[in-house]
Amino acid sequence: MRNVKDDFPILKNRDIVYLDNAATTQKPKSVIEAIKEFYEYHNANIHRGIYPLAREATEMYEGAHERVAKFIGGKMEETVFVRNASEGLNLAAWILKDRIGKGDKIITTMSEHHSNFLPWFKIARMRGARVDVIPTKEDGSIDEEKIIEAIDSRTKIVAVQHASNVTGYITDVKEIARAAHDNGAVIVVDGAQSVPHIPIDVKKLGIDALAFSAHKMLGPTGIGALWMKADLLEEGEPFLEGGDMIKEVHYNSELQVIYNDLPWKYEAGTPNIAGGVGFAAAVDYLERYGMENILPHEQKLAKRIMNGLEEMGVPFVGPRDIKRRGGVVAFSVPGKNPYTVALYLGTKNVCVRAGYHCAQPLHESLGIKGTVRASLYIYNDEEDVEKFLEALEGMP
Questions:
Q1: Which pTM was predicted?
Q2: Which residues are catalytic?
């Protein structure tokens, strides 16, 4: 089998074991070359010029929307390019704010990334609503049954992660979506840790909105996507105003504005055009690899990490059943500060993350002052895992 690492220049140029993929992934040559080629041969602004080069750039950027939308089973007009999943979730909250009234309820969980936690409190304060935070199970996993039990006629939004960047737990969002819709609520899903690893079809999941980032799935930083049902995008209003998101503006004592068609209504100003091209190239690479191959590969390696940690007496969070989790393993070395552990592993060329991983409420609810996180992707292999475990075991 072809060595996947050969496709990633940084893994050939640096002697590292890269296990920080939940933070950001490395980039294959095809993505780097796609961005480079755009700037060398196709660079112009989009939706403005009518000369051939501008039309070429426009077609490439619009084609990127088509490519990314198809990747998750959506439509181009439903797929808004944003800077990252965080911006996508903030935009989703802004779009949906007028659906929330005084005394209404937003449901989220203790396991959420700050990006799918803080925006809902902000919207709740604006609208006089409340946020119900559903506690996790003892291992930090999301409790779908408790979420479903909490959904009632006052619930307007359910905001939940599809996969955790701490516990690795994969949420059954399909059942939660069904319960939300039965009560007239909208479900917003944080897909930052699922879209890069699991085949996604938004229609089959039955969800209303999904946010994810390109940089966590081999693409460039500074671009991501919010997929949202077209009727919700139509009823909402942009939180950024400016160029390209307007069809017409008239002012004669009163302002008259006609917004652009979807998805451009929500993409104000000159966008990250080259980033969009790189995003599409990343999707191409993942589909050539086979999305169905990613999770089983990661689970095999994660299981070895979990077994190795248990042999060393090092506890980790999340379910023990590997079938319920992805390739993220967060752990705490007894008596060691997580930053000290990560710093030491770094001296052994092992790249991991330490801290709260933008999920401080989850850690505090579990009584843990931070964890060390090893997170896997398609270019990691058994040798990486053994080097990591060997380095950890040798820590003084």
A1: 0.97
A2: 358
CA distances from 28 to 198, 285, 288 (A): 19, 8, 12
Question: Domains of the chain: which residue ranges?
Answer: 4-24+291-393, 30-287
Contact (Cβ atoms closer than 8 angstroms) between residue 123 and residue 146: no
Percent of the chain whose predicted confidence (pLDDT) is above 90: 99
Closest CA to 105 of 80, 78, 84, 124: 124
What pLDDT digit, counting tens, does each position of 172-186 carry? 999 999 999 999 999
Residue among 162, 177, 151, 155 nearest 112 (CA): 162
Contact indicator for 159, 133 with CB cutoff of 8 Å: no
Q: Are strands 371-375 and 328-331 parallel, antiparallel or unpaired?
A: antiparallel
Domain formed by 30-287, architecture: 3-Layer(aba) Sandwich (3.40)
Distance CA 321, CA 387 (A): 24
Instruction: Name the token pair of 80.
Output: 């808004």
How many Å apart are CA 130 and CA 123, to the nearest integer?
Answer: 9
Domain 4-24+291-393 CATH superfamily:
Aspartate Aminotransferase, domain 1 (3.90.1150.10)
Nearest to 149 by CA among 123, 128, 179, 114: 179
CA-based angle 68:72:76, to the nearest 5?
Answer: 50
Residues in the chain: 396
pLDDT digits (tens, 9 = 90+) for 278-287: 999 999 999 9
Q: How far is CA 354 from the centre of its chain?
A: 19
Peptide bond into 220 cis (omega under 30): no
Q: The sheet that has 155-161: what strands, in order across it? A: 79-82, 224-228, 209-213, 186-190, 155-161, 105-109, 130-134
Tell me the HSE value of 239 on the side-chain side, using a 13 A CA sphere.
13
